[in-house]
Amino acid sequence: MARILLTLSFFSLSTYAFADNGDAPIYIVSFLLIIVVVAVLAYQAKNKPANYSRSEADSLRNQAEESLGRLGEEGIATLSNVPILLRDGETAFLTEASDLFELETIYLTGGITTSNGSITGGVARSTPVEQMTKMDSGSLTLTNRRIAFVGKDRTRDFELSKILDVKVQGNCVVIGGGSEGKNSLFSVKNPYFWESYIRKLLRGDQPGNKGTPGPPAPEGGFKRKVRGTPDMKPFEPIE
Known about the structure:
33% strand, single chain, alpha+beta
């Protein structure tokens, strides 16, 4: 759908710029162009990562710090009911519904109409455009070994040992180190919590297996793994 709308927009713009043969009134082409552009913008707004205001971002950071503080005191909760098949010795810590966003290259093809007396010809152009695109919807899971996304049509697996970068962009946690050097963006309730949790695991701050104490945690790190379900209260909607 996005490709069709963008192609129509490019075509209308080309026609508007070169419509000097009198076949189509300029005001009609302009009206069609406005409709197409509005449709494209509306579609993209619904299919790209959301942005937070400064106050919303600060609130989410505070919630993430509070949640991590409680985990540091009470221990890390683990999950058994997750949408991925856990490997031998693998433990899951977080899972929630998520959308996957990645940069995608599309090619816009437009027709340019020229006129020279009674001779009219068409010229086709193809222009590559990169845009952030919603690739799929599914669930995101964090374990002591990887970050796994399972969608309707696509899957993504990031081994913790191979992750190059973790950061927050809008309502997404950004994972660097995927195939072809692309970053993958995953929408989550609190991206700052996910970012901090992942960074702790990357530093080797992991609990032991089956409820046994893990290696000594660095200062301010997690204590150990405990059974239970993570308290999701910090993720109440922001007013």
